[in-house]
Amino acid sequence: MPHLLSRRAVLVLAALLVSTAARAQEPLDQRYRADATRLIQAALADSAAYNRLATLTDRFGHRLSGSDALERTIDWAMEEMRRDGLQNVHGEPVMVPHWVRGEESAELLSPRAQPLHMIGLGGSVGTPAGGITADVLVVGSAEELAGRAADARGKIVLFDVPFTTYGETVRYRSLGAIAAAKAGAAAALIRSVSSFSMQNPHTGSMRYYDTTVVRLPAAAISVEDAMMLHRMQNRGERIRVRLSMGARTLPDVQSRNVVAEIVGRERPDEVVVVSGHLDSWDVGQGAMDDGGGSVAAWEAVRLMQRLGLRPRRTVRVVLWTNEENGVRGGAGYRDAHRAQLDQHVLAIESDNGVFRPFGFRFQGPDASLPMMRQIARLLEPIGAGRMEKGDGEADVGPMIALGVPGLALDVDGTKYFWYHHSSADTMDKLDPGEIARCVAAMAVAAYVVADMPGTIPHEVPRER
Amino acid sequence: MPHLLSRRAVLVLAALLVSTAARAQEPLDQRYRADATRLIQAALADSAAYNRLATLTDRFGHRLSGSDALERTIDWAMEEMRRDGLQNVHGEPVMVPHWVRGEESAELLSPRAQPLHMIGLGGSVGTPAGGITADVLVVGSAEELAGRAADARGKIVLFDVPFTTYGETVRYRSLGAIAAAKAGAAAALIRSVSSFSMQNPHTGSMRYYDTTVVRLPAAAISVEDAMMLHRMQNRGERIRVRLSMGARTLPDVQSRNVVAEIVGRERPDEVVVVSGHLDSWDVGQGAMDDGGGSVAAWEAVRLMQRLGLRPRRTVRVVLWTNEENGVRGGAGYRDAHRAQLDQHVLAIESDNGVFRPFGFRFQGPDASLPMMRQIARLLEPIGAGRMEKGDGEADVGPMIALGVPGLALDVDGTKYFWYHHSSADTMDKLDPGEIARCVAAMAVAAYVVADMPGTIPHEVPRER
């Protein structure tokens, strides 16, 4: 029916199709330069993210799973998200562990009396009422303990292990109580897992993975105190400590992942997750771990909304619950959305502090790395153009294990383990300009992946 | 009687006299190069100073005036000095203030409940039993308080003043309670006087200089907490705090300056003092303030003794008591030795932490600076060759005011106010190699001034 389209119309249509096809071939950093620039400029224009994080942390303080503060933070976040004009704002219920610290202390009794700077490890059992009073054996490694197991019987074992990397050193926090139990010890202490200390002890989770040994109370003491006890032992002094912990694990309680969206304009069922975790340890303010990641993810999506950048696919901000002592938020999301995971295009998370961003770590098929690097080039103007292979974050881990590609914000971590899981994880350590750059990086990555013509292939699931 | 001296003997004698005269003209850095090298090599040869300081701080902990720990440290130091073979080891009695902290706390009640990281200021009165519960007014300066005096009535005034220099910022610690009292406030809080914080509040002395106003309880809170309260006020939130302090001042008690000597081989009545203060605040270990200065001074003299370097004049190590809250040690020494101060050639002190030494600050006649710089050149091999005009330290201040020249060890102070007067003033912040350099610098300066042909003229006394 030639009368329906004039020759001129056919030519115009053909030209349009060719141009669209050419555009689909265009590198992402060319295609999205203008949108990325808008997002970056909007992120850097003010201190909105910093101010929102300050409001969150000042108003609610720390937010351990099971606490009232966490649930009130979740309620507040959803209210604010509705006010921001985000869509489908809701909480997705998930049952979380409810560990409570109770009263706790550690006191050096001999060679002289002095309170130690201690903090119980999350998940630990408590001591009997009145505490445990025992001599201390200080060891520098698990191997040293194995070689001195006879000396450890009935004692409080202190692992005075200097920080190397978090991954390496944290094993003593996770497993120290088991190693001490195997040696017949009465309790386990660790030197805080920290690269610099000002008498701030660092908590974090431990678990009784090995159920064949007794569950010993486990706590961290400050780096300073651990080194002091080690020096005392090296001088041949007898060290005696009273450890008292009221910790206990209550029945699981319900918490929620906070979810909000910009629904995709073309493929609403395809989803890019952009996320951080709202829960924290019960000390400090959880400003960098991970209030900052939560707010950066949220602000990234709010900026798209404010700028009218509605991508092809759905962008879903998720503020996880219970990263710290269970990752039940991430596991619950995987379970609740299992049928839709094939349509999860990418799972982004920030959980290394909202310090100066360098770029991202990408966990996905090698074949997609060049495309991801095109996106990273859009962040070169703010120094965040790095895109390397590497592991995604904990909360999106359950999804990634099922094949969903992951993207982790990579930041300057120089001081992260100074503050991490301690009273010093507070707002003042963060910089409004650096947070704004994190927001920009999250926004550009999420937007481009949600809007680009192609997708990143899933990998073969590692679990089912 | 020409037969008594041969012509040859006369020539030899004349040559000797000429050579001695020439030697007296020789710059000090040539004359003492060999001795200085021996002292430096001996100081750097091992970790003796670090180990002695670790023993001191681990065994006795902090050492506030009036405490048993201070007096036991003094006893121990004298015992060790005798064992070192020093001469005339003794304690010189002096009456010192006896302020005790008691139980103390500050708790945020509104806008949410949270314990604050607080420490009472030394010299403060306590609160009534049950504490003071009041709204908080946060001000950024004394000028701001003056402009808002009507708002301050009945409130707890918090001075949230960012650290610039110690000299400038510490005025709020010294005088904040007076300014708050003049505005009719109920108590005074200050942001800790510190250039970097990990929730470690910093104490230090305050005094009620102005006796016309009421004595308000005064405490420091952590930098983090001060900034948080300021943010809350900026948001228009009502801040309510309960401050509870059991502080009180007991009658003065006797303490001692520790004194030990190498008696001069030619002019035993002429004295070079080399010193640090043994007392500390009642928090942390007083490792850098000023156990380190004490041990560096002591080790400097021990090294001379061990190397058989007995100078022309007496070298007197003095470990002061009560620098922190009274300077009664320095004042008592001045009073007890008033008649001998004309023969005090130089008063050296280290009280800025035993970090990497740059050299010295010299408080004395400008005309002597070139000679002092000759001495400093001997320390160039360890990077401590700086000799600038500047103030001496607190304990030797009373002597300096009477004309005795002063020399203060000048060190890399980058991190000093991170730790100063807080729980984080501990051994692990110090480096054995840096302490050894401090020992070397003190030893060379003290030895050369005690042995050199000339002396530094006294200045006209500023007080009598």
Write up this protein:
2 copies of one chain form a homodimer. Chain A has 464 residues and is an alpha/beta fold. Chain A has 2 domains: 28-99 and 251-451, Aminopeptidase, CATH 3.40.630; 103-246, Glucose Oxidase, domain 1, CATH 3.50.30.30. Chain A contains 15 helices and 16 strands. An 8-stranded mixed sheet of chain A has the order 1-10-12-11-13-16-14-15. Chain A has an 8-stranded mixed sheet with strand order 3-2-9-5-6-7-8-4, sandwiched between helices. In chain A, helix 10 (287-307) links the parallel strand 11 (267-277) and strand 12 (313-320). The first copy, chain A, is elongated, with a radius of gyration of 25 Å. The model of chain A has no long low-confidence stretch (mean pLDDT 95). Chain A binds chain B through residues 54-55, 58-61, 111-112, 114, 117, 197-200, 223-224, 227-228, 231-232, 235, 284, 418-419, 422-424, 426-428, and chain B through 54-55, 58-61, 111-112, 114, 117, 197-200, 223-224, 227-228, 231-232, 235, 284, 418-419, 422-424, 426-428.
From the structure above, extract its key features.
homodimer; 464 residues; Aminopeptidase; Glucose Oxidase, domain 1
Secondary-structure blueprint:
The structure is a homodimer of 464-residue chains.
Chain A: H1 7-25, H2 28-31, H3 33-44, H4 48-60, H5 68-83, E1 87-100, E2 104-110, E3 114-115, E4 118-120, E5 132-139, H6 142-147, H7 149-152, E6 156-159, H8 166-182, E7 187-191, E8 218-221, H9 223-234, E9 240-245, E10 248-262, E11 267-277, H10 287-307, E12 313-320, H11 328-336, E13 344-349, E14 357-363, H12 369-377, E15 386-389, H13 397-400, E16 406-411, H14 416-419, H15 432-451
Helix pairs in contact in A: 3-10, 3-15, 4-10, 4-15, 10-15
